[in-house]
Amino acid sequence: MLPPPIQRLCKPNIQSFFILCALIWLAYANGLQAANGGFFQSLLSSVLGVVGAVFANLSGAGGGVVFIPVFAELGLTESQSVATSFAIQSFGMTAGAITWSLYYWREHRLNPKWQSFIYIVVITGGASAAGLWIEQLWSLGVPQSLGHSFSWFSILLGLSLLAQIYLLKAKISIHNQLKPLDVVALIVIGLVGGVITAWLSVGVGELLVLFLIFRGFCVTLAISCAVVVTAITVWSAAPIHLNSSSDAVWEIVMYAGPAAIIGGIVAKTIATYIHTKTLKTVLGLWILIMGLIG
């Protein structure tokens, strides 16, 4: 008998349909590449899509932190790397957002711990989309030190989260409802995160998930909100990165994108079967690693 998580994925539902379509496309596309002698490159792109989407949807942060370093090693320019990352995430983060949203609706919409889900998503997602377009319309440009600054910021946040788990003895109060200051903080996080995401294709999800965890909201809620907000942010950039004149490298996207659908759906199943403390540890280490490799 198959394990319960596998049984859930095999049930006839929208997620299993997406996975089936992605597998059919990957088998067809990789088969063509194998016939033309380019199987290794297409397989690498497919694996990259799955891995990036799993970690992105498991942590709430965008997949750019996985994609950008790899694209740099492949010789892509900065604009190509960002555009390609956005294009891949339009598959993976969307699949993850649909999966997490259905999880909320089916199992937690009446759960008091999840009553702020829609408010968090709407407030932060709207602010993040606005922040991304402010950066585009005002042509703010990427500061030369942004990459290093964001790396150090991620390192400090990751260490802080790990310290909260293992060093701080005081109990952190549990919050279910948004307070006025929380709403203000979410707007600021959305605006700032949207600008950073426009630069790096990652940022708003990381900031949001850490804020919600530090405020004492449910960890799984924090991840689900971050995934949905990241998907909103990615799609708000569709006119920029998904048009015919985009710098995205579609030879990579056509393999990594469908593979990311699989990773985005599987990640929720993984997250819901991990203990809260373990999940917080994974998040802290993941964010720390993002800073170290940034």
Describe what you observe in this structure.
By secondary structure, the chain is mainly alpha-helical. It has one domain (12-293). Helices cover 78% and strands 0% of the residues. The chain contains 13 helices and no strands. It has helices at residues 4-10, 14-35, 39-59, 64-73, 78-108, 117-138, 146-166, 180-200, 204-214, 219-236, 238-241, 250-272, 276-293. Helix 2 (14-35) packs antiparallel against helix 3, helix 4 runs antiparallel to helix 5 (78-108) and helix 5 crosses helix 10 (219-236). The longest helix is centred in the N-terminal third of the chain and has 31 residues, at 78-108. The mean pLDDT is 83.
Q: Please give the alpha-carbon distance between the first and last residues.
A: 43 Å
Strand content: under 5%
Overall pLDDT, averaged? Answer: 83
| Helical content class | over 70%
Total helices: the number is 13
Unreliable stretches: none
The SSE order reads HHHHHHHHHHHHH
Q: Report the strand count.
A: 0
Please state the structural category. mainly alpha
- The coarse overall form would be globular
Number of domains: 1
From the alpha carbons, calculate the radius of gyration and give it in angstroms.
18 Å
Largest sheet: none
Q: Give the oligomeric state.
A: single chain
Q: Notable features of this structure?
A:
294 residues, mainly alpha, 13 helices, 78% helix, 0% strand
Topology:
Blueprint: H1 4-10, H2 14-35, H3 39-59, H4 64-73, H5 78-108, H6 117-138, H7 146-166, H8 180-200, H9 204-214, H10 219-236, H11 238-241, H12 250-272, H13 276-293
Helix pairs in contact: 2-3, 2-12, 3-4, 3-5, 3-10, 3-12, 4-5, 5-10, 5-12, 6-8, 6-10, 7-13, 8-9, 9-10
